[in-house]
Structures are given as C-alpha cells and as structure tokens.
Design brief:
Blueprint: H1 2-29, H2 34-39, H3 45-55, H4 61-73, H5 87-122, H6 127-141, H7 144-158, H8 174-208, H9 211-218, H10 223-234, H11 236-260, H12 266-275, H13 279-307, H14 309-316
Pfam families: BPD_transp_1 (PF00528), BPD_transp_1_N (PF19300)
Membrane topology: Multi-pass membrane protein
GO molecular function, one term: dipeptide transmembrane transporter activity
Length: 317
C-alpha cells in the first residue's frame, strides 16, 4: 500500500506541474497586451513600457514561469492587474462561495442518484425502471444554465420560496447563505445526478449477476437484503469514479451557474478576469482548478484502494 501511495503521489506532483506549465504557456501566447488594455490605446510608449516592466511582462517567458510557479508553491499567486490586490486574497474570498456550492451540489447529486439508480436496477425492465431512466435521460440532455433559469421561475418568481440571485454572505447567517445556494446547487446537481443514476443502475445490475449474489440467495438471504448488503457495496467502485469526476465538473460548471445567479464565486471571478485580460488572475485560478481536479482524482484512487485492496496490491507490484 505504501508503494502504491508513493507512486500516486509522485504522479500527482508531476501532473500538477505539467498542468501549470500548459496553463502558463496558453496564457503567454494569447494575443493582446494586458498593459495596453489597462492604460488604453492612447497610452504613451514610455508609460506602457514602465507598466510592462512593473508587471514583469518584459522578462523572458521561462523566467516569468519560474518566478510565478515559485510564488505559487508558497501561496503567492501574484497581484491582480485589475483589482490591485493579491490573487490569493481574491481566491480566498470567492472560494467561500464556490466550494460550498460545489460540495452542496455533489451531496444533492449523490443523495438523489444512488437511491434512484438502485431502485431502477432492482426493477430492471419494469415500469419503475423505464420511467426513472427516461427522466434521467432527459436530465442528461438538459443544460444546467437553462435548468437554473427554470428553477428561478418556479421557486423564486412563482412560489417565492427562495431568492432568485445574489449571495448575502456567510455573515448574514448559515441559513441565509444556504438559501442563496440551493437553486444554483440544484441546477448543477440534477444533470450530474442523472448521469450518476445511470452508472449506479448499470453497476448494480452487473453485480446482481455475480456468483456471490446467487450464493447468498441460495443460502436463504432475501432479495432486498442481498441487494443492500452485497450488491450495492460491491457496485460502488465505478460510482466513486464518477463522483470524483463530477466534483471536477461541478467546479467547472460554477463558471456558468455563478453568472446565471450572480454569485460572487470563483467561476464569476474567472469570467471577469478573462473579460478584463487579467492574465495573472486567470492563470492562477485555472491552475488551481486543474490542481483540484488532479487532487480529486488522487483521492478517488485512494478510495479505490480502500474499497478493493487488490488495486493497491496490484499497484505495488
């Protein structure tokens, strides 16, 4: 297990460094000069050159990357061109919205999808299976931003149960913050729940056909007990994989959903930074999101090893 963990950790570090390099190079080759955008097209050449020097844009690309990644490793993400404050401060402020939103969406997706998937698998080919999987198919096809707008019309404008947009801040109270996040979390969660439900159904159906399930039934275990005691726990590995990937998709999905619901999170910050050519903010945020995806995949690998020790033994060999 220790060799497996070491190998996965080394892979995580190398992948994170490669991701940071790809993001930096992509930002460096984009057309446009951030200094010219800040000063405007009528700026004098000497003023423009001074600002470029202040921003470090006159340095070689390789040196700029080493300087940036060195600061990144110690928590210095640079200073935003637009807001003139450390990017780390912006990330800390906005993550207080985006991370709870993504976690809430993942929890809702899981709570909805796994019971639905198990229910459909236990009634394979019957009306309940067909109905739930039909709804799931529609859920896969529906864009989350359209779903968000429909949720606003129903629950905010028609019923008046929840706020339509904005975020009051956690200082207004936990309940007020959660009320503001419920609709965007549902808009993120429901399409992902549809995918997860289909994966859960397929995995449970495959497990129900295994020999150990037939043996358990032959020993007198009821179908319901065999399903929940043996089939569902053994069907969790592919489900855990999708859940890990979904957290990454949920973080990326906040870029759209936070703009639909005008939430001051990381997704909205990325959108604003791209519009304002705030390259240091964009590259730091995108790198953080990429690293979060890599870390989640690393945790999924560890969950794999915990659910099936054969994987870690195979990794050690």
């Amino acid at each position: 297990m220790s060799r497996y963990l070491l190998g996965r950790t080394i892979a995580l570090v190398l992948t994170a460094l490669a991701a940071s390099l790809v993001v930096f190079v992509a930002m460096a080759v984009l057309p446009g000069d951030p200094a010219a955008i800040i000063l405007g097209t009528g700026a004098r050449p000497d003023t423009l050159a001074a600002l470029r020097a202040e921003m470090g844009l006159d340095q070689p690309v390789a040196w700029r990357y080493l300087e940036w990644i060195g600061g990144f490793l110690v928590g210095d993400l640079g200073t935003s061109y637009t807001y003139s404050v450390p990017v780390a401060d912006l990330v800390a402020q906005r993550a207080a919205v985006s991370l709870p939103l993504a976690v809430l969406a993942l929890v809702l997706s899981t709570l909805i999808a796994i019971p639905v998937g198990v229910y459909a698998a236990s009634r394979r080919g019957r009306a309940g299976d067909v109905a739930t999987m039909g709804v799931a198919q529609v859920g896969v096809a529906v864009p989350n931003f359209w779903l968000g707008l429909m949720l606003v019309i129903l629950f905010a404008l028609t019923l008046g149960w929840l706020p339509a947009s904005g975020f009051p801040g956690w200082e207004a109270g936990l309940l007020a913050g959660l009320e503001a996040l419920i609709l965007p979390a549902l808009a993120l969660a429901l399409p992902q729940a549809a995918i997860l439900a289909r994966v859960t159904r397929s995995s449970v159906i495959e497990t129900l056909g295994e020999d150990f399930i037939r043996t358990a039934r032959a020993k007198g275990l009821s179908g319901e007990a065999a399903l929940w005691r043996h089939a569902v726990p053994n069907a969790l590995i592919p489900v855990v994989t999708i859940m890990g990937l979904q957290f990454s998709f949920l973080l990326a999905g906040t870029i759209i959903i936070e703009n639909v619901f005008t939430l001051p999170g990381l997704g909205r910050l990325v959108f604003q930074a791209i519009a304002q050519r705030d390259l240091i903010t964009v590259q730091s945020l995108v790198t953080l999101l990429a690293i979060s995806v890599i870390v989640v995949n690393f945790l999924v690998d560890l969950a794999y090893a915990a659910l099936d020790p054969r994987l870690s033994r195979g990794g050690a060999r």
